[in-house]
Amino acid sequence: MGIPLGSAALLRLAGVPVDAWCGAGSPEVFGRADELAERQARTASRARALSVRLGNEIVPDDRLTTAGRRAVLALRRRLHAGDLLDVAPATAATGVTGATIPETAETAPESASDAPKARETASEAPQAPDTPQARDTPQAPDAPETAAEAVAVLDPHLARELRELGDDAGVLRASFGAFERAVAAERERVSLALLELARTDPALRGFVEDAAPRAVADLERRAAAGVSWQDKRQRKGVGYLWRALGRTVAKTTPRGWAGQLAALPVCAVADDGPLLPQPRPVGGDVAARRTENVHLLWSRLRELDLSAVGPQTLLAPAPLYHATGVPGTGGLHFCVVDPRPEGGGRLRRLTLRRTPVLEAVLELLGSTPRTVGALEAGLGPPSSRPVLRAFLSHLHCLGVLQICAVPEVRRLSWTPPPATGEHLPLGSPGEGTGAAARGARGSFLDSYRKLGPSAAPGARGKATRPLVGGQGVAAVAEGLAMARRVAALCAADGGQEGSGWEELAEAASLGAEPVSVVRLLDAHHHEYDAAAAKPVPRARYEGWRPVRTPGSGYARLVAHIGARLDAECVDLDATLLDGLGTPRVSPLLEAWPVDCLLRPTAPAPAVCGASAVLESASPAGVLDARFAEALGELHEPYGGYPNPVAHRDFLAAFERRTGVRFVELLVPPLAEAAANAVRRPITTSWCTGDPNTPLYYGRSRESVPGAADRHSRPTPLPPVRHLPLDSVTLRVTDTAEGRALVAEADGVRILPVHHATRLPAPPYDRLLRLLTATGHPATVRMVRLDGLAGAFPEAARVPRLTVGGLLVVSPAQWRVPRAALWRPADPEPVKVAALAGLRRSTGLPRFGYARTRPGAKPLPVDLAALPALQALERLCQAEPGTDLLFEEALPAPNTAERRGVAAQLLLRLPHDRTAEELAERAAAVWREAAISLPGVPLASGGGTEPGRTPHPR
Fold first, then answer.
1. Smallest Cα–Cα separation from 876: which of 866, 867, 863, 885?
2. Any idea what the Cα angle at residue 201 is, between residues 196 and 206, rounded to 5°?
3. Residue 72 is inside which H or E element, if any?
4. C-alpha to C-alpha distance for 398 and 361, rounded to whole angstroms
5. Which H or E run contains 672?
6. What are 396-445's pLDDT values in tens digits?
7. How far apart are CA 379 and CA 142, in angstroms?
8. Angle between helices 202-211 and 156-200 (to 10 degrees)
9. β 728-735/738-745 pair status
10. 338 near 329, Cβ under 8 Å?
11. DSSP letters of 411-469?
12. Based on C-alpha coordinates, what's the Rg of the chain?
C-alpha cells in the first residue's frame, strides 16, 4: 500500500519556556500605575465637583470682598482643571490650610528650572489695585483676604471638604513618589534577572553568544564598575537581552537551540483526539547538527588553487552560459561571480572564444560534475596533463569552472538536555578561540528534540505517546478548504490570481517559438550588472488590502467584516462564502499535498472555539527540506522521517501517469545569512540550474578534526541527473484560461519545482520566477490570510477572523497612533503610566507582536514589561510612520501550561493518502483541466496505467 504522504508531522518548539518571558514582566508595577491613575481620576473628579460648588455657592455671595472673590475664582479655575499630573503645596495661593492644588498641563512646570518661571507667572496674576483711593477704602477688620478664609466664613462644611481634598492630594503625591521608587527598583530587578537568564539558560545563552558575543560581558563589566542600570548603555544592553528573550520564547523558527524540531506521528484513522495532546508532551532528549555554511564553503573553494588539488576533486561549470556562432569562431557567454575585491560578489558577463578544448571541457561536464583526473584523461594523453591542469586552473580563476564539495557536519546524537548553567553541546560561534569555534562561526546549528509521553494519562491511567489526533487533523483540512476559498477571493480582486510572470521584462519577447531561458536572461544582462539591482519577489498572495474593484466578491466580503469591526471575532462560514459567490477550490489544488503551518490552541471561547491558528499553507516539501537529512538520520532506528520519501514517490507516480518531468531548480543562496536554506532532499530524478549538486543534495560529510586537506577524500555525487539550463526553453501558448508559459527540454514538458525558502540574487530571481510559473499551479501557491488590518487602513481595531469556527486565520489587530505614546525624554514612571493608560483605553492584550506597518517584521512584546518601553521607542525610530500595528498573541503566553513552550505544528495534508492514491487523482485532474498543451506527450495507455516518462537527452 505504501506510506501515507502525511504520516509524520513536525513540531517546532521554542527553546526557552514561556514562564521565563513572563518572569521578566512587571505586571504589579503596571497595575499600580492603573491604580494611581484611578485614584488621580477620582481626586480630579472631586476637585471639579468642588469647583462647581465654589462657582455656584461662594462666588455670587455679596459678602465677598474683591480680594476674596479673586482668590476664590483662582481656586475654582485650578480645581476645575481636574488634571492631577503633579501635586504641589499651594497653601499661600489658596488660603485653605493644608490644601494642595492640582496643576494643569499648561501651568505645571516641566522641570525644576521652570519653577521660578511658574512663580513669576503667578506673581503677575491680577491683584487689587495699589492706589491711594484703594488704600483709603474702608474695609471690615475681619474681611477675608484668602480663599480659605472666605470659604470658611461663608460655608464651613465646604471648607472642610476642601481640606480633605488637600489631604488626599498630599497622600496621592506621596504615592506617586513611592511609585517612582518602585519603578527604579523594578528596573534593577528586571535587569539582573535578564542578565542571570542570559548566563544560565542554555538556549538563550547560545542565541546571544551567536548574535552578540560581547553583550553579556559588557553588561557584567559595567555593573561591576558600579554603573547604574538607568545608564543609557546598560538600558540598551538590557533591551537587547529582552528582545532576544522574546525571540527565543515567542518565535519557533528553527535557529540554533532557540528553535527546536520534534517529529511525531499522525493518527491515520478517525478518532476523537485533538490536534495536540493537552497538556502538551513533556520534552525529552535533544540532538543537534552543526553544518558548514554552504555560501562560505563556495567562497573558500572559489579562492582555492586548482593546480594544487588532487585528481579526485570534482569540477562543474558555472550555471549560466550559452554558445553563439560556430565552434572555432563563435563565443561562449558566461555569467560569473566577479572575483575582484571591488566586485562585491556581483555577477558579470564573460565571453570566451569557442575553442575546441573549451568545447570539450563543457561537453564532458554537460550532464554531471567530473573529477579533475577524469577531465584530464578525457581531454588528452598523460603527457599533456600539466598544460591541461593549467588551463583548468585558468578557467577556475575566471569563474567558468567551480569546485564541488559537500558541507561538513558535526553531529550530536540523542543526549539528555543540558542543565541550567551548562554549555550547549557543539559549542556556539561566540565561544572559544580554537578550530572548533572558528568552524562554528562559519556554520549553522539545527537542534532536535524527542517528545516524551504526554503528561495527560491515557485510558488505562498511563502516560500516552504524543500523537497528532485524527479529529484535529480533520478540522484543519475542513478549515483549510474554506481558507483557500477566502484567499482566492482576495487574489481575484484586481486580477492578482496569476503567478505574475508577464510582469517581468524578460517575458515581453516570448511567443509561440521556444527560446532558451539562458539566452533570454542574457538579453537583459545589463540589468543585473547594476549594483542597485533589487531581487524580484516570487509571486504570492498580497493578502488583505483595500478594495480595488467595487462590487466584487472581495468588496462584499470586506463590507461584511467592516460592519462588524466592534465584534470580538468574525467567522466566515461556508454559507457566507457561497452567498458572496466565492468559487470552490480548484481541483488542481485539492489533489496536491500541502504543508500547513499551525499554532495549536486549546479550543475555548477565548479563541472563538478554533483549534489552531493557520499561519500559512505552502507547497509540500519546502519548509522541512533543510531538516530532512538530519531527521532521517536521527529517526533511522524508528523507520526514519518518511515524508520526503513519500513525496518523492508521489512526484514519480504523477510523472508516470502524465508524461511530464519534474525538474528541481537549484539556485545559489542570496548571501551568507540563511545560506543553508538551499539544502534539500532528492525528490526528483532530474535537476537544473547550478550543476554543483553536492552543495545542495546528499549526506553531509562528517568533519574530521585536524584534517589538513578536505579534498584528499572523494566527494560523492548525489543520484540525480543535471539538465543544463541552456537546454531548457520557454514558449507561450493559449489555453482556455488565457496565455500560459510552458517549459520544455528536448521536446519533453518539464515542471520545475523549487524546494527552498530563500529568495535568490539577480538574475536567479528572474529565472526562478519564470521557471516556477511553468510548473504545476499547486507548487507555487501559498495561502496566508493574516493582516486583516490591511483591508481597513483607517480602522483603530480589527477583530479576530476565523473560518468555519475551525481555524483562526487573522488574529485581532490594533492601530496605535505614535502620538499617543510618550516622549523619549520622559521619566520612566511617566512612560509606565502612559503605556498602562494606553492599554486601558484601547483594550490591548498584554502579549502580542508589534509592527511598523502591515507585512513588516513582527517584534514580540510584553506590554507589562519595562523593557517594552525602549523596544517600542526603537521600533518607532526604525521606520517613519504615524501608527504602530499591534497583533494579539495566540495562544496567549499567560495561558500556557507550567514550563510550557510556544509551538508550531507543520502538518502535511492529505495525511491518509498514499503516493499512488493521490497521484492517480492528481493525474486525472491534470488531464481534465484545461492545461493539456499542444506538443505535450502523454503517458502510455492514455495515463490509466503507469507508463514510461520521456527523458530529455
1. 885
2. 110
3. helix 66-81
4. 15
5. none
6. 999 999 999 999 999 999 998 887 767 777 765 544 444 444 445 678 99
7. 124
8. 80
9. antiparallel
10. no
11. EEEEEPPPPTTPPPTT--TTS-SSHHHHHHHTEEEEEEEEEEEESSB-TTSSBPPP-B-
12. 35
Q: Which three cell numbers stand for residue 86?
A: 503633579
The predicted pLDDT at position 443 comes to: 87
User: How large is the angle between the packed helices 372-379 and 356-364, nearest 10 degrees?
Assistant: 130
Q: What whole-number distance in Å separates Cα of residue 446 and Cα of residue 407?
A: 14
* DSSP codes of every residue in 546-605: --SSTTSHHHHHHHHHHTTTTSSEEEE-HHHHHHTTPPPPPHHHHTS-EEEEEEE----G
The amino acid at residue 721 is: R
653 contacts 915 by C-beta, under 8 angstroms = yes
Encoded amino acid at 189, one letter: R
The DSSP secondary structure of 28-41, one letter per residue, reads HHHHHHHHHHHHHH
Closest CA to 531 of 769, 758, 344: 344
Q: Which three cell numbers stand for residue 679?
A: 539544502
Q: Dig out the grid coordinates for 756 from the structure.
A: 527552498
Cis, peptide link before residue 763, omega less than 30° from 0: yes
For Cα atoms 195, 199, 202, give the angle at the middle one, nearest 5 degrees.
Answer: 130
Q: How far apart are CA 617 and CA 465, in angstroms?
A: 27
Q: How is residue 2 written as a grid cell? A: 505504501
By three-state DSSP, how is residue 695 classified?
helix
Are 861 and 904 in contact by the 8 Å Cβ rule? The answer is no
Give the per-residue pLDDT at 12: 93
Q: How high does pLDDT run on average in the chain?
A: 82
* CA dist., res. 340 & res. 347, Å (int): 11
For residue 891, whether the previous peptide bond is cis, meaning omega lies within 30 degrees of 0, is yes
Which residues sit opposite 410 in a β-bridge?
290
- Residue 406 CA to residue 700 CA, distance in Å, equals 6
Q: In this structure, how many other beta carbons lie within 10 angstroms of the beta carbon of residue 477?
A: 17
All residues at 6 or more sequence positions from 66 whose CB lies less than 8 Å from its CB, including other chains: 128
Angle ∠(832,833,838) on CA atoms, nearest 5 = 100
763: left (phi over 0), alpha (psi -120 to 50) or beta: alpha
Length of the chain: 953
Residues (pLDDT < 50) of the chain are: 84-144, 430-439, 455-463, 530-532, 538-540, 896-898, 930, 932-947
d(CA 877, CA 682): 45
Cell readout for 336 is 560569473
For 138-193, strand residue ranges (E) read none
Q: Grid coordinates standing for 831?
A: 512612560
Query: Is residue 817 within a helix (H) or strand (E), and if so which, with residue range?
Result: strand 813-817
- Nearest Cα to 589, choosing from 934, 852, 918, 168? 918
pLDDT of residue 666: 94
DSSP line for 213-279: TTHHHHHHHHHHTT--TTSHHHHHHHHHHHHHHHHHHH--S-BEEEEEEEEEEB--S--S--SS-SS
Task: Write out the three cell numbers for 25.
Answer: 514582566
Q: Which of 144, 235, 251, 232 is nearest to 188 (CA)?
A: 235
Contact 470, 270 (CB under 8 A): yes
Strand ranges, E, within 293-363: 314-317, 320-324, 331-337, 347-353
pLDDT of residue 422: 72
